[in-house]
Amino acid sequence: MEAGCGEGYGAALVAGVARAVLAMDYDLLAASHAARRYRQLCVIRANLVALPVATASVDVVVGLQVIEHLWDQPRFLAECARVLRSGGTLILSTPNRLTFSPGWIPGTPPLNPFHTRELAASELTALLPPTFHLCDLRGLKHGARLHELDARYGGLVAAQLTTTADRWPATLLADVSAVQAADFVTTDDDVDTALDLLLVARRRSRS
């Protein structure tokens, strides 16, 4: 199950290795689009803090770049615990607040207006209910090729933001288009300097 599927491409990738994928998003347009484009998915519109899923009925819950958008993050995680079977897996990714919004001032709203609360690694793990066992926490960082591009452009993302995509120089367009998953690396060392956080937790056995 993917909670907060958005456009649907992440759930479609999961469908390549899963028997079946239930994808859900609260936004009606996003859910409708995902259902039309990815016919291999079962897509529904749903509130992520009140999942319309039976208790202990899901093997894996995936939430990619979604928890930072939710107003009630503890309730979302409690719902993930409820729907997972004993031994079921929770996989989350989220921007690392320490690098995504380094100028953020505690007690003020996030710098990104679409985020309700951004998290550092310690804050993310502290949110986990006791019904979960933390299996792995990793950071996503740039690999060698992206470091080279950052040096070439004085920041690859900054170069993209100087103008709209239709006005990018041909070289920038080609370099951005060529970025692949292999250009990033994950590490469990110094996660506080990572761009994104990746968490894997296991649902403890139900008593």
Describe it for me?
By secondary structure, this protein is of the alpha/beta class. The chain has a domain at 47-141 and 187-203: Rossmann fold (3-Layer(aba) Sandwich), CATH 3.40.50.150. 30% of the residues lie in helices and 25% in strands. The chain is built from 8 helices and 8 strands. The chain has helices spanning 9-15, 28-37, 73-83, 97-100, 121-127, 144-153, 156-160, 170-177, and strands spanning 2-3, 22-25, 42-45, 58-64, 84-95, 132-142, 184-187, 196-203. A 5-stranded mixed β-sheet has the order 4-5-8-6-7. Strands 1-2-3 form a 3-stranded parallel β-sheet, with helices on one face. Helix 3 links the parallel strand 4 (58-64) and strand 5 (84-95). The mean pLDDT is 94.
Largest sheet: 5 strands, mixed
Rg (C-alpha, Å) = 18 Å
Fraction of residues in β-strands: 25-35%
Q: Given this structure, which CATH class of the domain at 47-141 and 187-203 is correct?
A: Alpha Beta
CATH superfamily label of the domain at 47-141 and 187-203: Vaccinia Virus protein VP39
Query: What is the helix fraction of residues, given as a range?
Result: 25-40%
Strand order of the largest sheet: 4-5-8-6-7
Distance between the termini: 24 Å
| Derived structural class | alpha/beta
Number of helices: 8
- Structural shape: globular
